[in-house]
Design brief:
mainly alpha, Serine Threonine Protein Phosphatase 5, Tetratricopeptide repeat
């Protein structure tokens, strides 16, 4: 898996060195969401002349960003198909990358693919399935699908409580997400019958 990423990144570096520099900058800034505005404002630090020229030309910047997307897109399928735990962690990191890159729909699509595929090869209580599912729930909520996200989080919480207990760090994370879902849904409806 690491060799495939190395080859893809080497190819990106040869085809578009600025795209590789942009990807490296974004990976350095993760896990915070990265606004495109960061790259559109004049830099206040010294950067390579090639990077400066790309950042000042929207066409070149868009081309570099598209090339990054093409480079990282083939690898996720391989990572989700792998039975190795390290590769599955990489697949979860790719889900996070799509989200932090600002591609929420791509994040959701890949998370759905990962969760559905892993459900065919791992046990339903597998911690990695549940982590990927919580990412899916999070991005569903970000996209306005509150009920879908809440249902996924509730399922993850139940499975984690049953498999690893109430005090496990993953369970506590799931509890926090479920409580966020309840806050986002607002107060329960009350009856006004007299």
């Amino acid at each position: 898996m690491a060799a495939a990423w190395t080859v893809a990144l080497e190819r990106l570096g040869l085809e578009n060195p600025v795209a590789l520099q942009l990807l490296q900058a974004c990976l350095f800034m993760a896990p915070e969401p990265i606004s495109l505005e960061l790259f559109l404002t004049p830099p206040k630090v010294n950067i390579s002349p090639e990077m400066g020229a790309t950042l000042q030309n929207p066409s070149r910047l868009n081309r570099a960003l598209r090339q990054i997307g093409v480079t990282v897109s083939p690898a996720p399928t391989t990572a989700s198909d792998c039975e190795d735990e390290w590769a599955r962690r990489l697949a979860i990191d790719i889900i996070a990358f799509f989200f932090y890159w600002g591609d929420q729909r791509g994040c959701r699509e890949y998370a759905v693919q990962v969760v559905e595929h892993w459900n065919t090869m791992l046990t339903p209580e597998d911690p990695q399935i549940l982590k990927a599912a919580r990412w899916l729930a999070f991005v569903e909520r970000q996209l306005g699908n509150l009920a879908v996200g809440a249902a996924i989080n509730a399922d993850c919480l139940n499975k984690l409580q049953a498999s690893v207990g109430h005090d496990d760090e993953e369970t506590l994370d799931a509890m926090m997400l479920a409580s966020d879902d309840r806050r986002a849904a607002g107060p329960p409806a009350t009856s006004t019958a007299r």
